[in-house]
Amino acid sequence: MDAETLASLLDHSQAKIVVIDEAGTYQYANDAVSRLLGYDPDAFVGLNTFECMHPDDRPEMEARFESLRSAPEGASETVEYRHRSADGGWVWLETRLSNRKLPDFDGYVASSHDISERKRAERQRNELRTRLEELTANTNDVLWTVSADWDEMLFVNDAYEDIWGQPTAEVRENPERFLDGIRPKDRSKARDGMERLAGGESVEMEYWVDPSVSFRRRVWVRAEPIFEDGDVVRIVGTARDVTDRYRRQRQLRVLDDLLRHNIRNTMNIVLGHAELIQRGAHPDAPSGMGTVIDSATDLLNTAEKGREVVEVLSGANETVTVDIADCVSTAVENARERYPEVPIKLRQPSTAVAEAIPKINQAVAELLENAIQHADGAAEVTAVVECQGERITINIIDNGPPIPENEIRPLFTEADLSAINHGTGLGLWLVYWVADLSDGELTFGRRADGEGNVVTLSLPQAER
């Protein structure tokens, strides 16, 4: 095909096709330059492409052209820049340039498309995002807008990073990355919500997020589909950290349930024995009175434990720097004074500084007392403090029987306590809440020899 025939074919292309020499001078231009830039093709030939570029774009384009010229033959590159139009304005072009020369034209072929509308839309979207970021900078809620197919995150504010524990840039690059920040057992529920939103339904749900704190942050999510001409075009939503609210509601449910349960059971015993004694029908009145007194004492102890729990929950719950070595040492000395007959061993470093709420000392004292009081026969207790990476662990080791499952399971279930076989004591709940409010973890196990329990309270190590 001769040059004239090829030029005639190129004139029918919708793309602007030009040939430039090594200096960047236009050697050929098809008829599309008239439609895209307003130039007569003949007048366009002889102009220098770099002199027609926006001053802000020219240095980078010259460098990239030079790099392409020196690359192995056959290399190509796609670039975006602003080109001056015949009326003095600027047109955004996307140009694909190859370094393979065409002998008939003695230059490099470049094909360009007008992307001004796309750039205008991007600019408007960026301006909207900037305004939204300014408006949402002072909110703690996550606000977001995503495309209907969950392919593009149109907007998300910086609160996402604080609540989800993930860089905002990750979810902007791939909206579905937010699923990685959701507790694994909740992800199917979140995916179901995504499908319902894409299908045009509104969604409201709660789940746990933030792997950096072992998914102990609870969020309430509400999202709505946005319609245009009957089709879902995008989805808007908000997510709020409701961890404190959830904790408070659960704490109130536990206190109400356990106190009612304990008081009702104990009062049934008191009233039953008192009624028999009153009627003179008790087979052993002195023993019955002893039971009444013991039960009344249990009620007083329950009330005292309830007061301690209320103090923990209503007190200052901001974490502070605590030397756990000092804390455990004091708790052990107090336990030794109270139970002089019980051998209590202590192994720990000279210092072990953690972040915890001020009531951490009550939790340690509670674990020691539980280990002593629930032993079969003579109790033997060992307290071990260890620094393990970024955590400080407190291990209370005893020689007692296994802790009943119905005392442990309610601590870690989200089920309604009234619907499960719960324990009767507030002591472990006190320890659990101290751990939870300290961003710590409470775990239960048995000794390797099976002859006792190991209760571990793990806390974040303080920053040095």
How would you portray this structure in words?
With 464 residues, the protein is of the alpha+beta class. The chain folds into 4 domains: 3-114, Beta-Lactamase, CATH 3.30.450; 120-241, PAS domain (Beta-Lactamase, 2-Layer Sandwich); 243-314; 316-464, 2-Layer Sandwich (Heat Shock Protein 90). It has helices at residues 3-10, 32-37, 41-44, 58-70, 116-136, 159-164, 168-173, 187-198, 243-279, 285-314, 324-338, 360-373, 405-408, 427-437; strands at 16-20, 26-29, 76-84, 90-102, 107-114, 142-147, 153-156, 203-209, 217-228, 231-241, 320-323, 344-347, 353-356, 381-388, 391-397, 441-446, 453-460. A 5-stranded antiparallel beta sheet has the order 2-1-5-4-3, with helices on both faces. A 5-stranded antiparallel beta sheet has the order 7-6-10-9-8, sandwiched between helices. The protein has a 5-stranded mixed beta sheet with strand order 12-14-15-17-16. A hairpin with a 2-residue loop joins strand 14 and strand 15. The model is unreliable at 419-423 (pLDDT under 50).
Strand count, sense and barrel status of the largest sheet are:
5 strands, antiparallel
Number of strands: 17
The termini sit apart by 76 Å
Domains, number: 4
CATH class of the largest domain: Alpha Beta
Q: Which of globular, elongated, flat, extended, rod-shaped describes the shape?
A: elongated
- Look at the structure and name the CATH superfamily of the largest domain: Histidine kinase-like ATPase, C-terminal domain
Spatial strand order of the main sheet:
2-1-5-4-3
Low-pLDDT ranges: 419-423
The SS-based structural class is alpha+beta
Radius of gyration: 37 Å
Bin the strand percentage: 25-35%
